[in-house]
Design brief:
Blueprint lengths: L12 H22 L14 E3 L8 E7 L4 H15 L3 E6 L11 E9 L2 E2 L1 H9 L1 H4 L4 E7 L7 H17 L8 E5 L1 E2 L6 H9 L5 E2 L3 H15 L3 H9 L1
Parallel strand pairs: 2-3, 2-4, 4-6, 6-7
Antiparallel strand pairs: 1-3, 4-5, 8-9
């Protein structure tokens, strides 16, 4: 007896074909759902970092990120450290941990790219907090294999990943958008996603340019007011 309680020996050809079609459809749906993820990914365990203090307060910058396999986590942490070096308290948080951003004076939003799109939690975060994000300084960054060769054509392709969100939310206007290469380890991604990426001929490796990541972080800091805290202390003294 199979799991559905049917005796296969008594099933006629039409019933068998119908059941097979349903099974294949289910597998296809599962493939599409699982393809963007990592094997055994546990997003709830993504790390949090505090640079320059743990209290929220109006002098802190929030760096909210979405990652699947950890590559974007490390980029987010590096950006947070650079902003902290410029004088800001920076709280690096996984996007699914955030319910309220009202206490932050600036926000940086980062996401890995899967199938030519931001991860769903990144897009959902922007939509959920659209009102606040439209009133404070905001910057964005993304990690994608498209940028493993940082040509102008590839930059345009990467920018297109964010275009639907910018068009849907016209008041969401990032002051800067960082486009960074990511990393690909076929041992960390799901079988389904690995098959898709291999079919596209994407090479395995770590293509992140840490010098470019730090340079962007330093450049975007003043636009977010990262040096404001140090300046106020100097003026008081």
């Amino acid at each position: 007896m199979n799991p559905k309680g049917r005796d296969m020996s008594k099933m006629d050809r039409r019933q068998f074909m119908k059941l097979s079609a349903g099974t294949l459809a289910g597998l296809s749906a599962g493939f599409l759902i699982s393809a963007p993820g990592c094997a055994q990914a546990a997003r709830s365990t993504l790390p949090r970092f505090d640079y320059g203090g743990q209290g929220a307060g109006q002098d802190a910058i929030l760096l909210a990120y979405a990652s699947r396999c950890g590559s974007t986590t490390e980029v987010a942490s590096t950006i947070g450290r650079v902003l902290n070096e410029q004088g800001a308290a920076v709280h690096v948080r996984p996007l699914e941990d955030l319910d309220d951003v009202s206490s932050y004076r600036a926000v940086v939003i980062g996401s890995a790219i899967r199938m030519g799109k931001w991860l769903p939690e990144a897009s959902d975060f922007v939509k959920a907090h659209y009102g606040r994000l439209a009133r404070i300084p905001v910057a964005c960054f993304m990690t994608c294999l498209t940028m493993r060769e940082p040509t102008q054509d590839n930059r345009q392709k990467a920018m297109a990943y964010l275009k639907p969100l910018l068009e849907d939310l016209p008041e969401f206007k990032p002051r800067s958008i960082g486009l960074f290469a990511g990393a690909l380890d076929y041992g960390k991604v799901s079988w389904a996603l690995g098959a898709v990426l291999k079919a596209k001929g994407l090479p395995e490796g770590d293509f992140r340019d840490w010098e470019a990541i730090r340079a962007w972080s330093a450049q975007v800091g003043p636009a977010l007011g990262a040096g404001r805290v140090n300046e106020s202390k100097i003026n008081k003294n």
